[in-house]
């Protein structure tokens, strides 16, 4: 099974804020935010419920990154 290096802490996800140029912080998987009861589901079920229909089949892990400076946030699609 593919694993996201950012979810597993192998690498740090760093993205430059398109608004102010500050390094944005990884806030975690998008599905963690959209499904507060995600711990009742298995991994595949959570992915299917994250609002990005292709993420499960393509092994893409959507991460939410947010800018500590201006509050801008965006989703980064990580290929697992
Ligand atoms: Zn991830
Ligand atoms: Zn910013």
Give unreliable regions as ranges. Answer: none
Helix content: 10-25%
Spatial ordering of strands, largest sheet: 1-2-3-4
* Form type: globular
Structural class: alpha+beta
Strand content: 25-35%
Main pleated-sheet profile: 4 strands, antiparallel
Total strand segments: 4
H and E string: EEHHHEE
Tally of separate domains: 1
Number of distinct helices = 3
Mean pLDDT score: 78
- Heteromolecules bound: zinc ion
Short description:
This protein has three helices and four strands; from the N terminus they run E-E-H-H-H-E-E. The chain has 80 residues and is α+β, with helices and mostly antiparallel strands.
Sequence-ordered SSE layout with sheet pairings:
Elements: E1 15-16, E2 23-29, H1 30-34, H2 43-48, H3 55-58, E3 60-66, E4 73-79
Antiparallel strand pairs: 1-2, 2-3, 3-4
Plain-language structure description:
The protein has 80 residues and is of the alpha+beta class. It has one domain (1-80). Helix content is 19%, strand content 29%. It contains 3 helices and 4 strands, in the order ββαααββ. The chain has helices spanning 30-34, 43-48, 55-58; strands at residues 15-16, 23-29, 60-66, 73-79. It has a 4-stranded antiparallel sheet. A hairpin with a 6-residue loop joins strand 1 (15-16) and strand 2. The protein is globular. One zinc ion (ZN) binds next to strand 3. One zinc ion binds next to strand 3.
């Amino acid at each position: 099974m593919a694993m996201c290096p950012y979810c597993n802490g192998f690498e740090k996800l760093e993205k430059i804020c398109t608004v102010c140029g500050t390094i944005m912080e990884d806030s975690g998987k998008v599905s963690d935010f959209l499904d507060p009861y995600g711990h009742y589901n298995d991994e595949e079920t959570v992915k299917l419920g994250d609002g990005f229909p292709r993420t499960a089949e393509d092994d893409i892990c959507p991460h939410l990154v947010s800018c500590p400076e201006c509050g801008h946030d965006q989703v980064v699609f990580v290929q697992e």
